[in-house]
Amino acid sequence: MNEDAIDAFHLDAIADADPYPYWYEDVDEPDSNQTLVRTVSCDLCIVGGGYTGLWTAIIAKERDPSRDVILIDAHEVGSAASGRNGGFMESSLTHGVANGQARFPDEIAVLEELGLKNLNDIEAAIKRYDIDCDYERTGVIDVATTAHSESYYDELREDCQQLRLLGQTVELLDAQDMRNQVDSPTYTGGLWRKDRAALVDPARLVWGLKAAAESLGVTIYEDTKATSVERDGVGVIVHTPLGAVRAGKVALGTNASKPLLKRLGHYIAPVYDYCMVTEPLTPVQLAEIGWENRQGLSDISNQFHYYRLTEDNRILWGGYDAIYFWWGKVNTELESRPETWAKLSKHFFNTFPQLEGVKFTHTWGGAIDTCSRFCVFWGRAMGGRVAYAMGYTGLGVASTRFGAEVMLDLLDGKHSLATQTEFVKGKPLPFPPEPFRFIGIQTTRWSLKREDRTGKRNLWLRSLDHLGLGFDS
């Protein structure tokens, strides 16, 4: 039988699901802000109202309360990836220690410590601004299953040794230990990273950051799309359909959206990720799977699932398919992909057969900005008056704060430990132009799926490794 074959049972589980993010059910969603309809001036203009933009606004005002800060967003603040992700808040700045070790071996210890400080700073900010976002610092478990080859569990052992050498609190779990934490007949082991990850309600976090920014005096305009940016005497002007912002400096946090600086389009590719949420589990259903410690979970395969409990004990289940559409297409229609939700439903019940009969209530998708090094990168333009941070590759809930902090350092000419690293100074390799980009990404997806099945990296993947692309997720 084809591994992706779907039967009526799996389709029935998603039949009545609402096609929008579960997080948006919250009654605390703030009112929309006004649209910019004139020309205004400020010291710092921030383009993009996701996590990167909001953290930039907050940190800018914390550093200098007198600084006049304006933030604009093409739609509503948090309406893109920041408000619809899985809510995994990892301390890693490099998309995991293995990726960081491969790309920045001489800096990995420093980067891991900077990542921990960043996570601690986020936790402190959540408390300082009284943001109610269901923050739980429960850690995450990287899970090996029967679908993985033995070499994948060996990778867990290697990661465990590496993390312990870096002074981190981790626990390697065998099959029984893993099932004692969360019970699935598919589990063969896991690695519990205990102190460097948390879970949040992503939408309530972004709304809380919006309120915090406004409390500090940041002016926010929504439904205000930046159409272009150009030099304007000693500053920069950001044009919008009905107005403009004249600013001394500009911070770009547009991520998966089309870059205002055309050259950045060579470095990022918008990839669609999809997820779904079950109805609340009953006490009996919860008892059948355990999960008393409420950790986030993620498969260790290339095509991986991520999953977690929500505050009201639903299971959020997502991942596996990462879809790049022809020519980097991005629009709201692509947020719906029933064939992926059907596949995810099948995988869910393969993992938790004891939950047969559970229904999914919400299904949704969204675009993330990936780059060839799988983690954020920075740069400046227009004589240092414009800076950007982008390329988070889906692990940005926490690292966006670090991205914002470094972006401000670059704009302000501030030398810090972070700005002296090759991690901050370097750039990813650019993607090739179309149609080679599309062909390359599809070939890579096929090869990664094959590696998950066989445990062997083919010539295509080895060639990418040699070029420094190293696709592994």
Give the number of helices.
Answer: 14
Number of domains: 3
CATH topology of the largest domain: FAD/NAD(P)-binding domain
CATH architecture of the largest domain: 3-Layer(bba) Sandwich
CATH superfamily of the largest domain: FAD/NAD(P)-binding domain
Kindly, what is the distance between the CA atoms of the first and last residues, rounded to a whole number of angstroms?
A: 26 Å
At the first level of CATH, the class of the largest domain is Alpha Beta
Approximate strand percentage: 15-25%
E-strand count: 18
Classify the secondary structure makeup into a structural class: alpha/beta
Low-confidence stretches: none
Helix content: 25-40%
Shape: globular
Largest sheet descriptor? 8 strands, mixed
Summarize this structure as a short list of keywords or feature phrases.
D-Amino Acid Oxidase, Chain A, domain 2, 8-stranded mixed beta sheet, FAD/NAD(P)-binding domain, 473 residues, alpha/beta, 3 domains
